[in-house]
Amino acid sequence: MAVEIGELRSLLDGRWAGIRDEVRAQIAASPLLRPVHGLPVEEHRARVLEQARMVSQTRSARLFFPREFGGEGDMGGALSAFETIALVDLSLLVKIGVQYGLFGGVIRRLGTRRHHERYLRQAMTMELPGCFAMTETGHGSDVQSIRTTATYDAQRQEFVIHTPDDDARKDYIGNVARDGRLAAVFAQLITGGEWRGVHVLLVPIRDERGRPCPNVRIEDCGHKGGLNGVDNGRLWFNQVRVPREALLDRFGSVAPDGTYTSPIANETRRFFTMLGTLVSGRVSVAGAGLSAAKLALAIAIRYGSTRRQFRAPGRDEEVIVLDYLQHQRRLLPALATTYALHFAQEALVVALHDAGDGDSPDDAEQRRLETQAAGLKAISTWHSTQTIQTCREACGGAGYLSVNRLTELRADTDIFTTFEGDNTVLLQLVAKGLLTNFRDEFGSMDTVAMVRYVADQVVSAVLERTAARSLGQLIADAIPRREEESNILDREYHAYLFAWREKHVLEAAARRLRKLMANNGDAFSAFNAVQDHLLLAARAHVERVVLEHFTAAIDRCEEGEVKSLLNKVCDLHVMASLERDRGWFMEHGQLSAARAKALITNVNRLCRELRPHAQQLIDAFGIPDVLLPVS
Ligand SMILES: Cc1cc2nc3c(=O)[nH]c(=O)nc-3n(C[C@H](O)[C@H](O)[C@H](O)COP(=O)(O)OP(=O)(O)OC[C@H]3O[C@@H](n4cnc5c(N)ncnc54)[C@H](O)[C@@H]3O)c2cc1C
Fold this sequence. Notes:
This protein is an alpha+beta fold. It is built from 23 helices and 13 strands. The chain has helices at residues 5-13, 17-29, 41-56, 59-64, 75-85, 90-110, 113-125, 267-276, 279-304, 325-354, 363-394, 406-414, 423-436, 447-455, 459-465, 468-477, 491-517, 523-529, 531-556, 561-580, 582-587, 593-610, 614-619; strands at residues 130-133, 149-153, 158-162, 170-173, 182-191, 194-204, 216-220, 233-237, 240-243, 253-254, 260-261, 308-311, 318-320.
């Protein structure tokens, strides 16, 4: 099978192929964008700042910002550019992610005209380095419980920002320790003596010469387990005064006399709406994690294709390690799943772009996007950390040398599973969306309300209203469905198995919740008791959606070598994930012992058949040569 790499690459590059190529060319042409390793922290931070300033002069920065402020208003393009930049140094990706995506993004999404006019251009050019100060030492995942306060003083028409104690200090905040001048601070808004929930205010933390502002205390988080080119720090505010206009007031405003108004009456809904508009950050982290996995696979497969160990009897040469079945089994299923996740990521970027940059006026569409972004972020970043570790081991001792990049990729991506939303917490969000089928009430429900909602209905109504209903249709459509009637490689059979698992787990979780809530059960305890089930449902959902996107991408291909190669890659992705979960499918009567064993044989066969194409499959990622270690 002779595959045309260009055709495969353009399929992977997708709608924003031109932008990806533009960034690749910039990387190839610029010595500043070469990977380096082992720099002392301050040198690394300085280099990353210089790189970020360079990026800020390019289209990659402009794409993210609206046209009327000098940008190009192309969210899909921006996310594709960020994915490519991630290959250089993940510290650089995170630095610009904080500056454009979080700081610029929060001003754009939660601010109004005056904030846009005053700050967006400067955020884009990095004249005004900014921070996104949400997390506190005491509260990370539970943002609604943060304790920094913003109390309105009607007499002076100012907000007073205050950190009540060390637990409420802002922690881990990117751009704080060294470069940031203005922080978007998440705080509990208090006006007229009433608490109005979490809002965001722009608070200066350093003057133009880089000195901390009065009553702002700044501390460096110090050396981290990775991403040391980013200056993470802590912030305390001691009765710091900012003008009334500092409040980003799209979803809640305070009149000069202190009267509070909001277009969204329900506080929980307002909070989730505010956070929901920042969805692009999660998509960006998922994309960067996948870029790191691609890079690691490229390094390990290239190395495995030349590295030789042990001589087979009767052969003159030692065996190339990638010719060992077990080596193929470690790398090729991970490569296949990376392809699957790539197509799911690309589909999400397209959906986000087409739905008004992730700020869709259609509530249901917005909730679906947020849920897909949360689920894909969790599954992709977990996949990345596992894949990078596997690649490190697959390169033996060479994999442990910093020059070969794998140890740094592993260290840098480790935290991707935690920031921009902890993966476990994100999957709970996905489960909540599935159980309520993204209904209108969903946005207003906290966990306890969601449990009550599910429990308050008779089981059939719950199932009718959950995503399980449409899954039922999906399952019905996937014919042939029974094992004895279907070929193990039949894509409809795969679709059936993935949808059946999701439906079954979701229904079982809903039933358990209802049972636990019968006779006035306690909603929180009920939720806690089925957490494992909810997380499984979320994972099953994401895996089903990922398979659908991979299948759709293959369907878009013209008949030919590329299509048949991708079909094989998809087969391996499915066979390997069914092999991993075969215990569950057997327990639930969906796989016979014979078929479970056949999965193993098929993974082995597909690894053998894809081995000759491994190099082509990684070449199609289009990673610039200058970013790969010299072999
Ligand atoms: C390098 C780095 C950069 C960062 N940059 C920023 C930034 O620029 N701005 C910013 O605001 N924040 C930033 N953060 C903070 C980051 O977003 C938080 O660390 C993250 O949200 C998790 O919060 P936490 O650390 O308090 O963990 P916790 O929320 O305390 O979680 C600890 C553990 O408890 C588990 N857990 C929590 N709740 C539940 C539950 N309901 N059910 C089951 N398990 C649960 C989690 O899965 C996790 O394993 C950064 C963090 C790091 C390390």
